[in-house]
Amino acid sequence: MVNNFQKPKWKQEYAIEINNKFGIQENLDNEDSIGNNINEKWQNIKTIIKETKQQFTEKDEGTEKFKNKWYDEECKFAIEEMKKARENWLIKGRREKEEQEYHHKRKEAHKIIRNKKKTYMKYVTESTEKDQKHNNTRKIYQTVNQCKNGYQHKFCIIRNKEGELAMNTKEKAEIWKKYFDKLLNTEKQRELIKK
To answer: What φ, ψ does residue 158 adopt, rounded to 5°?
Structure first.
């Protein structure tokens, strides 16, 4: 998003929008300037800036992430139908008719998902080619890395001295505190090695 505000077009649009909102706020302040203190005015300025930035980020299509954009209501509906058919097959004692219906729904759902992914990947490659024509290398690398790596889950778990997993924030902070205390506050003075 920061890159977009560096573009002259975005700067100009953002400046115009901010000026308009501040003009409206100034008119409101002139009407009831008796009860407003400085903290309220600063709070109003802060909210105007945040709302305008939010408005511009929602409007921007260039910063969209390519994570599962293909998954829409049609995919969701097909998967739900497949799950219902499977439950029906399992509940009714695995009869052949229900099994065939389940396999048909599963095949249909996979076909829909495959087509959506294919269309999506075509869109991604077209946007990457467009970025290449406009010499937007950073965007190209972001897109390629996102497609290549996919979703990378961040594990926020560490082990304590006993080997148990600590997931609580306070526990993890305490473990790191002990570790760095031990590492940085040694009782022995180490001799420097002379070459």
So the answer is: -130, 165
